[in-house]
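User: Design a sequence. Structure:
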């Protein structure tokens, strides 16, 4: 396996660990743009899946909330929009928080793309607590 692929697999394992995810979050919080960018780039292609897991979802949310890394954050939102897992994310007890964060940090055409991707699932969201929060974010009430 290629070394960057090895790093990506190791990173994903660390994110899913009860303690490893805190280490990754700590590195992200250091404010070292290149380190944060490297972590975020290693996770590309895995954001939707990681969003539905207890520990790694916290890291995905942290990545979305990082300042100064707009291009990387845009990639995360684009990945969520394009994911076949989006319907599950909307209903998932961890993934819905990632979607809420994506709605909160996105703007312009990217935000509209995310809203448009969610719209087909609005009827199924109305009756769930997670869905109601997402609807509030879409409607700008929160």
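Assistant: Done.
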């Amino acid at each position: 396996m290629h070394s960057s692929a090895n790093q990506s697999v190791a990173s994903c394992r660390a994110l899913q660990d009860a303690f490893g995810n805190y280490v990754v979050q700590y590195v992200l919080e250091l404010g070292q743009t290149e380190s944060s960018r490297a972590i975020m780039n290693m996770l590309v292609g895995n954001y939707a899946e990681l969003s539905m897991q207890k520990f790694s979802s916290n890291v995905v949310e942290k990545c979305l909330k990082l300042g100064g890394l707009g291009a990387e954050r845009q990639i995360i939102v684009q990945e969520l929009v394009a994911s076949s897992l989006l319907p599950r994310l909307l209903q998932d007890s961890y993934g819905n928080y990632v979607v809420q964060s994506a709605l909160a940090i996105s703007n312009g055409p990217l935000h509209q793309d995310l809203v448009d991707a969610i719209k087909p699932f609005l009827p199924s969201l109305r009756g769930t607590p997670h869905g109601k929060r997402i609807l509030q974010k879409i409607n700008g009430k929160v």
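Residues 1-6 have pLDDT under 50 and may be disordered. The radius of gyration is 15 Å.
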